[in-house]
Fold these 2 entries.
Entry 1:
Amino acid sequence: MGSIAYDAVETPHGRVDRMLGGACTYIALAASYFTKTGVVAVVGDDFAQEDINLLSSREIDLQGLERTPGKTFFWSGVYSHDMNDRMTLRTDLNVFADFQPKLPEAYKTQPYLMLGNIQPALQRGVREQMNGLRLTGGDTMNYWIQDYREELLETIRDWDFLLINDSEARMLSGEHNLRRAAATILEMGPRTLVVKRGEYGAILFAQGSHFIAPGYLLEDVFDPTGAGDCFAGGFIGYLAERGVDPRGGAVDLQDWRRAVIYGSVMGSFCCEQFGVDRFRTLTREEVEDRYREFKACTDF
Amino acid sequence: MGSIAYDAVETPHGRVDRMLGGACTYIALAASYFTKTGVVAVVGDDFAQEDINLLSSREIDLQGLERTPGKTFFWSGVYSHDMNDRMTLRTDLNVFADFQPKLPEAYKTQPYLMLGNIQPALQRGVREQMNGLRLTGGDTMNYWIQDYREELLETIRDWDFLLINDSEARMLSGEHNLRRAAATILEMGPRTLVVKRGEYGAILFAQGSHFIAPGYLLEDVFDPTGAGDCFAGGFIGYLAERGVDPRGGAVDLQDWRRAVIYGSVMGSFCCEQFGVDRFRTLTREEVEDRYREFKACTDF
């Protein structure tokens, strides 16, 4: 669940005025390499058939895709020369402004839920419509951390994992040091925390220990848009494929760790082309190859 | 070989007006946990006996420590709140200004040489005084890369490894992307490149492949001064302990990789206390414990 959007993006490698984007899009595309995936999102009547076709080509269930008169959520941004910073130029919520996610019946008994970054109350609302969840995780952002703190805290309290970037972890916890930040956040409810560090990888805090995964060393980063959401999709997709069920006791730590690597793998592919383009051709075999490459370049 | 200095350092955790420092000091202290180490450096007549005692307590050979009338090299700097930046407040070269390193006879046949950051021509001069070297590596900095480029290129051409940080690698190669930067630098001569990334770890480029090591996740970073030099000391110290000899054919890739981890281990200890203080009590057993911890928190 999350946004499906049209993005305009400029990076040092070029510029695209309108391309499919949004957290839900990237999460679903990445997760679809591991498990049957469905989306909960809203688009306007301008949403293109070719974009529907792309999602369908990955066998993504679109029953939960609401279509509303008006325009699809639009975001535009420009990346700095080193691509470590980006500036938002425009955010038009459009049909997303009045989004009240309602789950199709068939979704309500699904076991795995990934809540993309969106207002915490809406994230909570989706979770409450579901029965039989094995694993719920979600993302958030600085805006909700600063201005909707209580609502956010009430929401993440029940999640199995929280997946945010390092600056968000620092903001949420009030601690600069990531080990301390993680300890503080784990007391807020989520039993597992994944801190994304962009090109530097990610850290998993789970079951009393931590796991540090370096970022994949790309030769060309064309467009980092969506990489964090692809990480999330690969992460929960792999956990779903493995059928992990924390209610039945502790999850094998190696499953958490491998999920982080698969998340990194999906995020790295995302950066190789503009927007979702890499997913037009990416195969599961390539995913496995890169997983093995990760293993090869971190083993000692 | 490199600088032995007195430093004044301010970090968010406190301030020290005068403490033992300098690249050579940190390199030698870290290397001394792995192998018999000697220094080539100069100090003034103000150099304190207690600092001699610390080096001696680690069984560091001081035959190559020149004592000259005048003051020891002095550096002072202040770290930003997140300790990712530091500003140099003062650099007084003092006796270091006229340093012409001359090796004691006993040093000339040593097999391992680590050249700390210093003017490239002096680094070359030291290397030329030695016969029977198995492995030579060195560090440099932005100043030499920008203003002494030809001298630097002539110097590093003959090194077995170059060990610099990411911004230096970008400056030296003119490439922002680290994979491309590494490819360019490896064509300049060094057969192995280690790119240090501060808290994010290091990347080794050797024998046609690369190894990405994450940084150790410290709970408290008191003072990062010297961490990069401790990395260098741990790195070459371990290679010396293993007796690697690239002249006899390819070094076992695992030796290079483990050297990076030992480098990271030594750098991480360095940050735990001000200046060299952590090395007053650190034991080899603690080094091994942290190496195992590195393994445990990166394994998947």
Entry 2:
Amino acid sequence: MIYDNETFFGEYAKMSRSTQGLAGAGEWHQLEGLMPDMAGKAVLDLGCGYGWHCGYALDHGAVRVLGIDASEKMLAAAEQRNPGPTYRLCGLEEYEYPAEQWDAVVSNLVLHYVADLADIFHKIHRTLKPGGVLVFNIEHPVFTAGVREDWIYDREGRPQCWPVDDYYIEGPRQTVFLGCQVEKQHHTLQTIVMGLLKAGFTLEALEEARPSAEMLPLMPEEQKRPMMLLIRGRK
Amino acid sequence: MIYDNETFFGEYAKMSRSTQGLAGAGEWHQLEGLMPDMAGKAVLDLGCGYGWHCGYALDHGAVRVLGIDASEKMLAAAEQRNPGPTYRLCGLEEYEYPAEQWDAVVSNLVLHYVADLADIFHKIHRTLKPGGVLVFNIEHPVFTAGVREDWIYDREGRPQCWPVDDYYIEGPRQTVFLGCQVEKQHHTLQTIVMGLLKAGFTLEALEEARPSAEMLPLMPEEQKRPMMLLIRGRK
């Protein structure tokens, strides 16, 4: 569990999304727009990390919030920073997905660690009530199909363009993230979208994260290639 | 109209999709799977080219088939190779899209020449009967966001990886296709999918063209990056 690695966890703690919460996440201004009404709802967060999205659900009127995560350190941070929801040490593959329990399932930047997306989508569909909503954010296929998930740089060391290779070869990709070797799963766009549709979801929104006008000057390279895919589906 | 340019038209005529028709098109084995039942149906083909898809509709029982195209040369070729449907010299932006006229609208590799996709999707939605189907194939955003739409090559001159740049800057891209300067329109994935949903379509399928097992050895680089996006939406 890379998120329990000391070095990784220490570096993760320094990211703006960790120190500032949702406001420090470049994609939040879009992801928030996809969130369903939380008032009176039961909300499950798959891979809750620091618990920011669980806290958001609670703040917006959710009456039952469960965050699961496979990292003990993350859950300890969640209890501290976003107390209130129920947190449980459990991986996405281990959760039992009881039938028709949740009004909303949220998953932020976790599904690119999951090898069998179709299976997870089926289980999420099962655990949602009829009319329930799944909102997730996953690393974009253009990003996970990157060559060592890194730029081609110009002579001054600035990002020049983003190389894509072996797009149709799905499965594990070794990358370096926060100074650690991290294995992610590359899925094609077709696998993501058709996995969702075949599980029985209706696609309601598909967006590609791009920084807000205020954040763009701080990360101009984010104009060059899409890094995240934001999706809302309804049962 | 580049398709009426002598050089371009001459080169286009040599492509396997021109000499062999649908069987010579690398994406047909997937596109055919998205085609709706044509029996007794009224079918509109936007940018019909040589008329292969119009011919297919007629062969599969369509009772009314109209192919429109902005190129005179293409329509002359269509009349010769796929006689039977009605062909009309008309661009996609000029067609009047009469309300609830068609059971199916097909468009193959044309929409990446259209600047305002949202507008065309609205018009297509209007001209479809309730329950009608739109099937289209458009150059993939990864492809149109390519740097000069070309590979980075290795020392032996073989395609190594596909560079992506300025992904979020939509609009015209100058490319070289069949020896001619051709202007295409780059749209993000979000623009394509949300354009469709906002026009009122339900997304039924989204696929990325990859060569069949027989064709792959002839075009191994097609494993490296996605070139086309195939979509089916229903009114």
